[in-house]
Write a structure and sequence with these properties.
Layout: H1 3-9, E1 21-23, E2 29-36, E3 41-48, H2 55-74, H3 92-108, H4 114-134, H5 146-158, H6 164-183, H7 210-223, H8 225-245
Antiparallel strand pairs: 1-2, 2-3
Helix pairs in contact: 3-4, 5-6, 7-8
């Protein structure tokens, strides 16, 4: 027996699955065990055959099932995992740390503006707080899906009492983060695409009327001359001067 053969059948190797087999009795079924990474233990999977009334049919279907299941298990199929790539089994905490490190390096190299990088890390920190407070069981990055993201956004709205605008800003960041994950093959698609923005309250920004401007000028010139001077400098430097210097004759 070769060294490889000995290694493959050694009890010290991690068993990813057991061979499927047929069980006969009050219930007929094919079962096997496979490793569930989310629970970190072997888990049983059963395929019931009782709906086939004829025993010969049950045995024929069982034989087909056992063959097909074994062939799929050999090439890495797992009934308890949606992930199809090795990277998708990377631990979630590890990926979060890599993203944090990426924002630091991207900021130093000028890929991200300092303000943007700080904002990203702030939102990442809030996500880590959520993981701790909600005791959410997410171990691998492939579990970062639409359901998890919706729960996180609901947590912000319901538990943290943030505004719709803040919630929407987090949704935008989560989409950016998901794109980063997708590009690095941690997930297959951006799970934020189907999550809608919430309607935000309209901002109250009406322009000052001519009468209000007169009142503002009179008040600031009398009670806050420094502010009045700043306003006039802003006007003459950036509004008044360009208007006065424009050559309107070129328009006719």
């Amino acid at each position: 027996m070769s060294h490889l053969d000995k290694e493959l059948i050694s009890s010290k190797c991690i068993v990813q699955f057991t061979l499927p087999r047929l069980h006969k009795g009050k219930q007929w079924y094919v079962d096997f065990f496979a490793y569930d990474p989310a629970r970190d233990k072997m888990r049983r999977k059963k395929y019931m055959l009782d709906h086939y009334k004829n025993e010969q049919d049950r045995e024929n279907i069982a034989a087909i099932l056992i063959h097909n299941i074994f062939e799929k298990l050999k090439v890495g199929w797992n009934p308890f995992v949606n992930a199809r790539k090795t990277r998708q089994f990377t631990e979630f905490r590890t990926v979060l740390q890599r993203y944090h490190d990426y924002t630091v390096i991207a900021e130093k190299k000028g890929v991200l503006k300092p303000k943007t990088a700080v904002d990203y890390r702030s939102r990442l920190n809030q996500l880590e707080i959520y993981l701790h407070e909600a005791e959410t069981e997410i171990k691998y990055i492939y579990q970062f899906d639409r359901a998890f993201i919706v729960d996180f956004l609901d947590y912000l709205i319901l538990d943290k009492d943030v505004s719709a605008k803040t919630r929407n800003n987090y949704r935008t960041w989560l989409s950016t983060f998901s794109t980063w994950l997708t590009e690095r093959l941690y997930i297959d698609k951006n799970p934020v695409d189907d999550i809608h923005m919430l309607k935000e309250d309209e901002k109250f920004r009406d322009p000052l009327t001519a009468a209000d401007l007169v009142r503002l000028r009179e008040y600031t010139s009398r009670h806050n001359p420094a502010f009045y001077l700043a306003c006039m400098m802003e006007y003459y430097c950036f509004i008044g001067c360009p208007v006065r210097c424009a050559n309107f004759s070129s328009l006719f």
